[in-house]
């Protein structure tokens, strides 16, 4: 049964089928063409949430739905059959199709079939065109970015390029052997993983001697490129094998295929170099990071036919050689992420046909060539994330064909040439993250035809010159990104007429007033980001967004908004209301929103329990941040249904009870913060199941008992904060084996015993990070970062952002005993060490001076003895030192930097034998020979003294008894009677 939303089949009535829509007949009256292709197929794509969305403006779905009638395959004179872009409900490929032996054209692509190919097509020996594709290409977003609340570069380069729903597989390709007339074979998305396990899997293809175009992209093919088999295809002009797992090199022998004009091996694991293939017109080897491409060598020979070259994300390095200009036919050159250095050669302006130049994410320096204006055909210029400097040349305004300009993330200075806004075809302008200056009236943009504008953090100030300026009908942008543009006042009224606006980002400005309600109902709006402004007042109870290629986001964080949290969120993937003044309960409906992936309500005034509606069985929630509120009650057991959660923050509330066992099902968790509540019980056993956990914060609760040994099995752990609880027993040695651990916070507990001796496993603390990476998780075009409270340099600091260099070891305020392990010297990347307020004793090891990154060292309130090691004076980064209230002795060591620390002596107070400390010994009366050997000698002398006394005591007693033994009985009796009288007198006096 077929349903037909487009009403295409309404003409299929009456006896003359040759008049039906989609049907063509031969002169003899036989049906030779059946074309039921969807006339308005949706442009299908996957957004960053890996959700299938449509980018089509179609109001209706025109696809046929249901299963195909077998009667269709009785038309045995049919030569052309097209069923593409319909929805046949994951049904199997019709076996009756083998009856259509006269077919020359068969297109079943993207029709939602799901089956394994065996012999269904073996009889179709007349076929010249066969398309069984199971997927549509996702549009290329690799050059686009949206900066929201954090300076994090997010692009779409890592997204899967295909949608694999309704997938067809083929265990082998023997069914191709009889199709000798095939010219075009398109198997995009067909699963050939099983077939490619055979070394000669492509042999059936080699029999297709007439084949001109072969498309095997996204087929899960692994192993080598089937060179021998391809060389038999002497008519082949197009070969596409992108997005597979090919692991060989590109064979030089492909140059023997003289008809080959298009070659696409992008998205594989190829290595080696690009062979000389002078016959090529289009070549793509993008996203093969193991490939090494020498552009100087490559263009030392002519590529006279080459029009398209994409080497993005391969190993290039070096500079762009002037010889590139010898390829005068080049129209598109893409080399993103290739570590290219040097400047753009002026000779590139000789490429008069060049229409696309993409050199993003490289190390290109120098200025934009003024002569670039001679590239009269240039339509697409993208140079983001390089090190370009100087002014944007006015000559760029003399490129009339320019449609897309992206100069983001460079060091460009000066003013933006206003003539750029008047380029007749320019639709996209991206210049965020530069160092420009000057004011720009918003009205200037209204006079342009720009559809995508991104000026965020460029240095430009955007002036709302007329709050009520009239709307210009020709100005209908899709993207407005004005982050950090010094905007003031309210949101202009003319924004209400921007019916095509998909992304509006006005974050980090000084905008004020109420957010107008109409803004939440713009018909195309998908992303609304107004964070870090001065907005106040209420927001509407219902917010509805429109699906697009982006996830849907409402970000109103860090304003002065108040009132209740909106209860109706329609088509919202991400909502962030952090740091406002919202009050009341969390609406129960918010947890039921289909497709919601992130809920951030931190830092408000909401109270009450966590709603039971959170985490229904069908949820896709990744981030839940309810921290810094006044929530009460317990953690609901149904949170265990949130199996997609990577970030859970319930810290700083009034939650009680224990951690429910059901939470163990959330095995994808990477961030867990339960600190600052009233949880109790032993260390939560469910944490053992979180094998991907990177950040664990349980501080400020009432947990007790020992820290379990399984903590050493959480190999991804980077931050561990268990401070201010009642954990006891010793620090588990397994903790010191975590190679990724960068911060240990165990202060203010009841831990006892020694600090584990073996610290070799703490690899992250053994090196000083040269390149800082920020800890957090990117999801749905938004970033959620880690936060951390640390005690460093004698003060408590709150880190809004945690970087990989924020390492520390804090076990202060416990009852630890023993000595400082010598192996602390291995932790040369550690800036913070706090062992204060314990019962540690012994000498301070000299190896402490090998901790070259130390900035804060606190050993106060312990029982350390001996001298302060001279090795500490070489710690150039040391800014805070506290050795007070110990039993240190000797002189305070001296050094150029060390002498500048605490000249008032407060770092050494409470050490009465320390020469020069407040209340300590007078240096002029102190012999310089006292050092750590004094303590050793003192210990030796004490031992010798005890031995001598003991021997004397034994000798005296034995001598006395020997004397008494030799005496006569009456003398012995007289002695003991005298002793009795003396003892009796002592007892009487005592009483």
From TrEMBL:
Recorded coiled-coil stretches? none
One Gene Ontology term of the biological-process aspect is: response to other organism
Q: What is its EC number?
A: 2.7.11.1
A GO MF label: protein serine/threonine kinase activity
Q: Which residues form the Disease resistance R13L4/SHOC-2-like LRR domain?
A: 596-747
Q: Which Pfam families match?
A: LRR_1, LRR_14, LRR_8, LRRNT_2
Gene Ontology terms: cellular component: plasma membrane
Q: What class of enzyme is it?
A: transferase
What Gene3D superfamilies would the database entry show? Ribonuclease Inhibitor
Residue ranges constituting the Leucine-rich repeat-containing N-terminal plant-type domain according to the UniProt record? 2-26
Reaction(s) catalysed (UniProt annotation): L-seryl-[protein] + ATP = O-phospho-L-seryl-[protein] + ADP + H(+); L-threonyl-[protein] + ATP = O-phospho-L-threonyl-[protein] + ADP + H(+)
Which residue ranges does UniProt annotate as crossing the membrane?
A: 943-967
Q: Where in the cell is it found?
A: Cell membrane; Membrane
What topology does it adopt in the membrane? Single-pass type I membrane protein
Keywords for this entry?
ATP-binding, Cell membrane, Glycoprotein, Kinase, Leucine-rich repeat, Membrane, Nucleotide-binding, Receptor, Repeat, Serine/threonine-protein kinase, Signal, Transferase, Transmembrane, Transmembrane helix
Tell me which SUPFAM superfamilies the record gives: L domain-like (SSF52058), RNI-like (SSF52047)
Which SMART domains does UniProt cross-reference here?
LRR_SD22, LRR_TYP
Similarity field: Belongs to the RLP family.
Protein name per its UniProtKB record? non-specific serine/threonine protein kinase
Q: Which gene encodes it?
A: LOC104210992
């Amino acid at each position: 049964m077929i349903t037909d939303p487009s009403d295409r089949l309404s003409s299929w009535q009456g006896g003359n089928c040759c008049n039906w829509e989609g049907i063509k007949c031969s002169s003899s009256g036989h049906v030779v063409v059946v074309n039921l292709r969807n006339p308005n197929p949706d442009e299908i794509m996957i957004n960053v949430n890996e959700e299938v969305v449509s980018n089509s403006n179609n109001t209706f779905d025109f696809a046929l739905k249901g299963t195909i009638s077998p009667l269709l395959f009785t038309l045995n004179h049919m030569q052309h059959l097209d069923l593409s872009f319909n929805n046949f409900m994951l049904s199997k490929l019709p076996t009756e199709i083998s009856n259509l032996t006269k077919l020359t054209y068969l297109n079943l692509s993207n029709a939602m079939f799901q089956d394994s190919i065996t012999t269904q097509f073996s009889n179709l020996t007349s076929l010249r065109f066969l398309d069984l594709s199971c997927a549509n290409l996702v549009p290329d977003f690799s050059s686009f970015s949206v900066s929201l609340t954090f300076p994090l570069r997010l692009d779409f380069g890592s997204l899967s390029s295909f949608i694999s729903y309704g997938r067809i597989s083929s265990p082998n390709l023997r069914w191709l052997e009889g199709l000798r007339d095939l010219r075009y074979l398109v198997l995009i998305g067909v699963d050939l993983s099983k077939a490619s396990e055979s070394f000669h899997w492509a042999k059936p293809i080699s029999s297709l001697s007439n084949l001109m175009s072969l498309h095997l992209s996204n087929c899960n093919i692994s192993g080598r490129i089937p060179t021998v088999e391809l060389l038999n295809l002497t008519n082949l002009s197009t070969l596409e094998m992108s997005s597979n797992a090919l692991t060989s090199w590109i064979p030089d022998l492909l140059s023997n295929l003289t008809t080959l004009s298009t070659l696409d091996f992008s998205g594989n694991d190829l290595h080696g170099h690009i062979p000389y293939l002078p016959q090529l017109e289009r070549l793509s080897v993008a996203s093969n990071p193991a490939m090494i491409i020498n552009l100087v060598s490559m263009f030392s020979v002519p590529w006279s036919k080459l029009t398209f070259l994409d080497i993005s994300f391969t190993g290039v390095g070096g500079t762009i050689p002037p010889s590139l200009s010898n390829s005068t036919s080049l129209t598109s050159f893409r080399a993103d992420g290739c570590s290219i250095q040097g400047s753009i050669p002026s000779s590139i302006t000789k490429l008069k046909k060049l229409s696309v130049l993409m050199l993003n994410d490289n190390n290109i320096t120098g200025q934009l060539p003024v002569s670039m204006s001679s590239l009269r055909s240039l339509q697409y210029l993208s140079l983001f994330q390089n090190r370009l400097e100087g002014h944007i040349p006015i000559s760029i305004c003399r490129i009339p064909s320019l449609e897309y300009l992206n100069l983001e993330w460079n060091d460009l200075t000066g003013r933006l040439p206003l003539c750029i806004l008047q380029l007749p075809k320019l639709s996209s302008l991206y210049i965020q993250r530069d160092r420009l200056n000057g004011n720009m009236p918003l009205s200037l943009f209204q006079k342009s035809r720009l559809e995508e504008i991104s000026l965020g953090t460029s240095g430009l100030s955007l002036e709302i010159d007329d709050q009520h300026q009239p709307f210009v009908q020709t100005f209908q942008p899709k993207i407005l990104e004005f982050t950090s543009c010094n905007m003031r006042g309210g949101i202009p009224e003319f924004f209400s007429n921007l019916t095509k606006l998909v992304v509006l980002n006005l974050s980090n400005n000084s905008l004020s007033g109420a957010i107008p309600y109409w803004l939440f109902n713009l018909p195309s709006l998908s992303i609304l980001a107004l964070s870090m402004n001065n907005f106040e007042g209420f927001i509407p109870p219902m917010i509805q967004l429109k699906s697009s290629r982006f996830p849907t986001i409402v970000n109103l964080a860090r304003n002065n908004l108040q009132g209740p949290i909106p209860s109706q969120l329609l088509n919202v993937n991400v909502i962030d209301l952090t740091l406002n003044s919202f009050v009341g309960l969390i609406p129960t409906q918010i947890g039921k929103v289909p497709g919601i992936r992130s809920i951030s309500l931190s830092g408000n005034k909401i109270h009450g329990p966590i709603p039971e509606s959170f985490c229904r069985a069908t949820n896709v929630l990744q981030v839940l941040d309810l921290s810094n509120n006044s929530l009460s009650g317990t953690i609901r057991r149904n949170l265990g249904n949130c199996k997609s959660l990577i970030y859970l923050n319930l810290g700083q509330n009034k939650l009680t009870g224990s951690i429910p066992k059901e939470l163990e099902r959330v095995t994808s968790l990477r961030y867990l913060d339960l600190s600052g509540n009233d949880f109790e019980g032993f260390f939560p056993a469910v944490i053992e199941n979180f094998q991907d956990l990177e950040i664990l914060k349980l501080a400020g609760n009432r947990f007790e008992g020992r820290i379990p040994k399984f903590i050493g099995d959480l190999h991804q752990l980077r931050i561990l904060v268990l401070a201010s609880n009642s954990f006891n027993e010793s620090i588990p040695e397994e903790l010191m084996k975590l190679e990724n651990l960068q911060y240990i916070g165990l202060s203010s507990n009841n831990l006892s015993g020694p600090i584990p001796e073996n610290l070799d496993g703490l690899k992250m603390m053994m090196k000083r990070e040269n390149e800082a990476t920020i800890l957090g998780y990117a999801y749905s075009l938004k970033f959620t970062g880690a936060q951390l409270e640390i005690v460093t340099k004698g003060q408590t600091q709150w880190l809004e952002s945690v970087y990989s260099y924020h390492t520390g070891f804090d076990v202060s305020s416990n009852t630890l005993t023993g000595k400082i392990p010598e192996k602390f010297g291995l932790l040369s990347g550690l800036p913070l060490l706090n062992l204060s307020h314990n019962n540690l004793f012994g000498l301070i090891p000299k190896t402490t001076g090998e901790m070259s990154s130390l900035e804060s060292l606190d050993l106060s309130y312990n029982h350390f003895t001996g001298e302060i090691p001279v090795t500490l004076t070489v710690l150039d980064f040391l800014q805070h030192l506290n050795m007070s209230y110990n039993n240190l002795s000797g002189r305070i060591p001296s050094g150029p930097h060390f002498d500048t620390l605490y000249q008032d002596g407060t770092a050494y107070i409470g050490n009465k034998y320390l020469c020069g400390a407040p209340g300590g010994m007078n240096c002029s009366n102190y012999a310089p020979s006292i050092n750590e050997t004094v303590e050793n000698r003192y210990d030796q002398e004490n031992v010798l003294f005890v031995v001598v006394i003991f021997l004397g005591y034994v000798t005296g007693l034995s001598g006395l008894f020997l004397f008494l033994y030799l005496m006569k009985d009456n003398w012995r009796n007289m002695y003991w009677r005298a002793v009795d009288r003396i003892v009796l007198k002592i007892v009487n006096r005592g009483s």
